[in-house]
């Protein structure tokens, strides 16, 4: 099936999310859309899938114009979509989820799940999915849940499959398995639209790459193009994709967590008996698939989790049980994973957001009176130092782009002497140029002697920044390994294998490879 988008424009008020985009997806082709978060990729695919109505432009299937009033129309035309956040009912079985909205019935109107089970088994066997039709969704690993989403589309005879940031929640092993599945689908004549901002995966899987920047197509690229070339197309200027950092010179361990347990409101242990330490002048990266206790760990350190037990000390002082304000005043800098909700006050100005952690302290306040001139001076200095792109220091922080919002949060947290710096998903939704800058600032904080904890689901980022890596799986620490540990070993740990076993497995694979070469 040939799919064409001609002049697709989508406006939300004054915001132009897609600006006259042309795109052709040929039969049996993997066509990647590459661009940073906020570039307009997902909006474009939501238009194609009938979730949004285009402001201008048209969609053609096999040369014929089509109009979609919803996803049902798109599916009927042979277009399926796997969203970044899966559309599955956790307590339903695989078969029940696949049948949902496309129910086969027996005589008398009874649901015919046997027919659905047979289709699932047929597709699973054809593509090597290894999915049990009667398994309950919430009991399945994330990678298998994603296969269920693909099965849902294939059951409905999808000829074009849209995969929106499909590797965002996968372990490295699950990512490799998905890329193999894509190759199988392609060989079967299916067309794949692969949406991502991950250069390595896009190069590996694509037949052609279309780069989108700020809602516009800036050009097509060959998968053989270098990552540097692709990054430059995404950002519009030359960028460095490698971080030049000297080896760490760690000092004493001044931050310690001992036997930390955090319970969710339902009583489940989301952090389970975790112990670790961070030394002055080193970066400890916490890796793992999203939802394995990372958020609760950082919130417990900052005093945002109520149901906690164990000990968290900074320079010998217990933090557990203290208020958030006390912990910040104890010298903890914290960049939360959701900057717009937890890191900024959107209606407040950039200048005001830059002093949220010191608004009542000298030099910005004396008693109850704030000092506007010093607040303004601080803002101008930080805007320049961190290259924050804003119309003025008085602009509302919520009007800034995601990358510039992140720079404001980072500037605020790094603008005072720290005894501990924590950054959760420090470059999520940030363009590669800003990533380069923010990574350098994080390393500079380390080199100044501060213990640094980075929490990231991006394995490239973990490997780039970390001096040591702690891997979490279902709230438990699988181990702490050197920063140069291989992707394969880290992937095994992220899937629940203890560090010693994962490293041994990787060592054995290396031995087997050497034997084979001989």
From TrEMBL:
Domain of life: Bacteria
InterPro entries in alphabetical order: AAA+_ATPase, ABC_carbohydrate_import_ATPase, ABC_transporter-like_ATP-bd, ABC_transporter-like_CS, P-loop_NTPase
SUPFAM superfamilies in the record: P-loop containing nucleoside triphosphate hydrolases (SSF52540)
Keyword Nucleotide-binding: yes
Keyword tags: ATP-binding, Cell membrane, Membrane, Nucleotide-binding, Repeat, Translocase, Transport
GO cellular component: plasma membrane
Domain (ABC transporter) ranges: 3-239, 255-499
Matches recorded under CDD domains: ABC_Carb_Monos_I (cd03216), ABC_Carb_Monos_II (cd03215)
Localisation per UniProt entry: Cell membrane
A Gene Ontology molecular function term of the record: ATP binding
Main localisation: membrane
One Pfam family in the UniProt entry: ABC_tran
Membrane topology: Peripheral membrane protein
PANTHER family xref list: CARBOHYDRATE TRANSPORT ATP-BINDING PROTEIN MG119-RELATED, GUANOSINE IMPORT ATP-BINDING PROTEIN NUPO
Name of this protein: ABC transporter-like protein
């Amino acid at each position: 099936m040939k799919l064409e988008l001609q002049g697709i424009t989508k406006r939300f008020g004054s915001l132009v999310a897609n600006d006259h985009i042309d795109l052709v997806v040929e039969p049996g082709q993997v066509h990647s859309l590459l661009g940073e978060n906020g570039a307009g990729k997902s909006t474009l695919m939501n238009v194609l899938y009938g979730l949004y109505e285009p402001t201008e432009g048209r969609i053609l299937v096999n040369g014929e114009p089509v109009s979609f009033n919803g996803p049902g129309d798109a599916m009927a035309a042979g277009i399926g979509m796997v969203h970044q956040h899966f559309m599955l009912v956790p307590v339903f079985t695989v078969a029940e989820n696949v049948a949902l909205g496309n129910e086969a019935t027996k005589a008398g109107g009874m649901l015919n799940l046997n027919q659905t089970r047979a289709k699932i088994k047929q597709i699973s066997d054809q593509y090597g999915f290894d999915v049990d039709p009667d398994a309950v969704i919430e009991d399945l690993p994330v990678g298998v849940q994603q296969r269920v989403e693909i099965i849902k589309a294939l059951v409905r005879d999808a000829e074009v499959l849209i995969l929106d940031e499909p590797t965002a929640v996968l372990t490295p092993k699950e990512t490799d398995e998905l890329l193999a599945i894509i190759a199988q689908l392609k060989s079967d004549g299916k067309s794949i639209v692969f949406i991502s901002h991950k250069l390595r995966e896009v190069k590996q899987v694509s037949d052609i790459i279309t780069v989108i920047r700020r809602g516009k197509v800036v050009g097509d690229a060959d998968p053989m193009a270098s990552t540097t070339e692709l990054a430059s197309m995404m950002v519009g200027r030359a960028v460095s994709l490698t971080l030049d950092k000297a080896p760490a010179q760690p000092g004493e361990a001044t931050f310690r967590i001992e036997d930390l347990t955090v319970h969710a409101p339902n009583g489940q242990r989301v952090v389970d008996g975790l112990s670790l330490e961070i030394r002055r002048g080193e970066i400890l990266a916490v890796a793992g698939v999203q939802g394995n206790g990372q958020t609760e760990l950082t919130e417990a350190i900052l005093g945002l989790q109520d149901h906690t037990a164990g000990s968290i000390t900074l320079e010998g002082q217990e933090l557990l049980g203290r208020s958030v304000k006390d912990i910040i005043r104890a010298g903890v800098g914290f960049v939360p994973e959701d900057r717009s909700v937890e890191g900024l006050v959107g209606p407040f100005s950039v200048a005001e957001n830059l002093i949220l952690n010191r608004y009542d302290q000298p030099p910005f306040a004396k008693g109850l009176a704030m000092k506007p001139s010093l607040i303004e001076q601080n803002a101008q200095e930080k805007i320049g130092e961190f290259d924050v792109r804003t119309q003025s220091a008085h602009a509302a922080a919520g009007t800034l782009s995601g990358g510039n919002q992140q720079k404001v949060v980072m500037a605020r947290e790094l603008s005072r002497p720290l005894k501990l710096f924590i950054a959760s998903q420090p470059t999520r939704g940030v363009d590669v140029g800003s990533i380069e800058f923010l990574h350098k600032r994080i390393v500079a904080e380390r080199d100044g002697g501060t213990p640094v904890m980075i929490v990231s689901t991006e394995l490239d980022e973990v490997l780039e920044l970390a001096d040591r890596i702690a891997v979490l799986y279902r709230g438990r620490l699988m181990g702490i390994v050197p920063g140069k540990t291989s992707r394969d070993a880290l992937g095994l740990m992220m899937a629940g294998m203890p560090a010693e076993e994962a490293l041994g497995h990787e060592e054995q694979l290396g031995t087997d490879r050497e034997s084979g070469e001989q």
